[in-house]
Amino acid sequence: MRIFLTGATGFIGSALIPELLGAGHQVLGLSRSAQGAAKLQALGAEAHEGRLEDPDSLTAGAAKADAVIHLAFDHDFSNYLANCRKDAAAIAALGRGIAGSTCPMLITSGIGMGSPAPGEIAVETVLDLNHPTPRIASELAARDLAEAGLNIATVRLSQIHDTHRQGLVSYLIDIARATGSAAFVGDGATCWSACHLSDAVRLFRMAIETAEPGQRYHAVGEEAVSLRDIANAIARSLDIPALSIPAEEAKLHFGAMAGFAGLDMRASSMLTQQRLGWAPTGPNLLASLDGMGTR
């Protein structure tokens, strides 16, 4: 297949390109600059000029492809609501490019929308349309396309990691560097799920090749890693103290990340593994944190 890939020069996208090429696919990657285009070409992909803020460029890219994987997302959490709305608009624009076809498209979301109730483990069969996290906009946009008859599936991301980046944990690392301490809220029992980058890109490839409309897949290799253990691993790697802070001080310490720091994001990938025959085998999150000296 010729696959149009947004976020092609990003953390996941640049690892996904060799995975797709190795399976015999062609990749048309979205690039907003000559530097990005050169990176894509060096990886063996073709570049398509465009950006999330230019819906027509997304529609044109999707129209050139046999399949679409939408990875791009603006991770400026100080403008999170606006960026989630922008993502919904981007998904709609990509949908216009494949309208009237059977072309499969994967969109990305967060695993939180799969939680049946606060604190309960997220599963693939659940879509909480009333979830307070603004990222629900992505899944609502995908639902609209599916209801219009398009072949849409969703990959929900946990903390995708290697020794260089670790999803939202990377922002906690930056905060720890800036403040001189690796903090967790309260007793640190809040947990996040995680998946190694190598497993995540394999999941994306298998999902786009399977092209089963309406499915939701969880990129989860570990169901629950406590924020206390994460903070301790960050502290070890940076040689700084780990400490507990009360919930009322979270905003002061974590800034725009405060809303995530106390949010439980446990998730299962049992159904994903059964449906795709996918089995995560990569290193765990704490091992990536312990080896992040090259970051």
Task: Using brief descriptors, characterize the structure shown.
alpha/beta; 295 residues; 12 helices; 12 strands; 41% helix; three-stranded mixed beta sheet
Characterization of this structure:
- The chain is built from 12 helices and 12 strands.
- It is α/β, with parallel strands linked by helices and 295 residues long.
- The strands form 3 sheets. Strands 3-2-1-4-5-6-10 form a 7-stranded parallel beta sheet, sandwiched between helices.
- α6 packs across α8.
- It is globular and about 55 Å long.
- The mean pLDDT is 94.
- Following the backbone from N to C, one meets helices and strands in this order, namely EHEHEHEHEHEEHEEHEEHEHHHH
Number of helices: 12
Helix-residue proportion: 40-55%
Largest sheet: 7 strands, parallel
In whole angstroms, how far apart are the ends?
A: 34 Å
- How is the largest sheet built, in terms of strand order? 3-2-1-4-5-6-10
Q: What average pLDDT do the residues reach?
A: 94
Overall body shape: globular
Total strand count, please? 12
Helix/strand-derived category reads alpha/beta
**Proportion of β residues?**
15-25%
Q: Which spans of ≥5 residues are poorly predicted at pLDDT below 50?
A: none
Topology (SSEs and partners):
Blueprint: E1 2-6, H1 11-22, E2 26-31, H2 34-43, E3 46-49, H3 55-63, E4 67-70, H4 80-98, E5 104-110, H5 136-147, E6 151-157, E7 159-161, H6 169-179, E8 182-185, E9 191-196, H7 197-210, E10 216-219, E11 222-226, H8 227-238, E12 242-245, H9 250-254, H10 258-261, H11 270-276, H12 285-290
Parallel strand pairs: 1-2, 1-4, 2-3, 4-5, 5-6, 6-10, 7-9, 8-12
Antiparallel strand pairs: 9-11
